[in-house]
Amino acid sequence: MKDILIMGIESSCDETSVAIVRNGREVLSNVINSQIKIHEEYGGVVPEIASRCHTEVINLIMKQALKEANVSLEDIDAISVTQGPGLVGALLVGVSYAKGLSYVTKKPLIAVNHIEGHIAGNYLTHQELKPPFICLIVSGGHTHLVNVKSYSEFEILGKTRDDAIGEAFDKVARVIGLGYPGGPKVDNLAKEGNPNIKLPVTHFDNLDFSFSGIKTAVINLNHKVPDINKADLCASFQIAVTEMLITNVRKAVNMYNSDKIAIAGGVSRNSFIRKSFDDFAKEMDIKVYYPEPVLCTDNAAMIAAAGYYNYINNERADLKLNAIPNLKIGE
Length: 331
Ligand code: KG4
Ligand code: ZN
Known about the structure:
The chain has 2 domains: about 5-120 and about 295-310, Nucleotidyltransferase, domain 5 (2-Layer Sandwich), CATH 3.30.420; about 130-290, 2-Layer Sandwich (Nucleotidyltransferase, domain 5), CATH 3.30.420. The model has no long low-confidence stretch (mean pLDDT about 95). The longest helix has 27 residues, at about 230-255. The chain has 10 helices and 10 strands. By secondary structure, the protein is of the alpha/beta class. 5'-O-[(R)-(carboxyoxy)(hydroxy)phosphoryl]adenosine binds near residues 13, 140, 170, 187 and 266.
């Protein structure tokens, strides 16, 4: 069978990325231009600056992606792009660019949901992974528990009712003075601490999550006890949020009698969360999958992987494609 090469374009937040992926599974190139250094100064992503930076670099990143993959635009079978969810101005840069490229090259245009992209990140790391499985998406903007029924059918089992887990990590890091983005910094500092501070965990009857309570508790505690041991606080925060995640994943695994789960999104880089899910998988006698670290945080290879499955499913977008900042999974 002829190889299918998909170009992925991602610009939903503060990473401009273009990738080339073969047959939905093999990364030929994955060029990522992170704006972290620029937004660091402001303690978080400034949407207007993000859009401008995407515009400045996207064409160069596309050329670099072709070069690293050692292919030309002619060789590409389709162009896939993140349609949403994300920052509207940031998404529009990728969507407009992809539409222009599709028009000029006459290559099909494929719209990809960013969250479905995160799930597909796992297909690039684990060739044997096939649906159905339960996937926990934990990122800066999302916390979703999803039943991945097939490559194109998704059932949301639960999601956060307030903050995303990554937002809580970033906020905790900010209040204790670790800077942005906070996730990796909390992860590192927690290694030196003991989880001896009691923090509130929130559970619901269904599979939803909530992280605003624990976030507020950390903010208040840090305010009331200025000399609190920050490493202990990070370790305690991680153990509490991980308990919330595992509780719901356990319920989902039991409900669906699953033999495998996947974790995805930026927070799935967290070393404590990975270790805890490894232990959980052993206890439950199931398999757990995570993308390799660079494919956990935002990147275009995951968009190309998801785009490949949309492509073989005959899903096509046209030049009327618009960015949808609150696009729901499965739409
Ligand atoms: O998936 P992602 O790049 O963007 C969204 O789609 O939101 O995720 C970014 C999030 C940020 O909140 C960042 O702090 C978090 O992932 N993150 C981590 C780690 N690395 C990145 N959180 C916890 N531990 C980490 N090691
Ligand atoms: Zn993301």
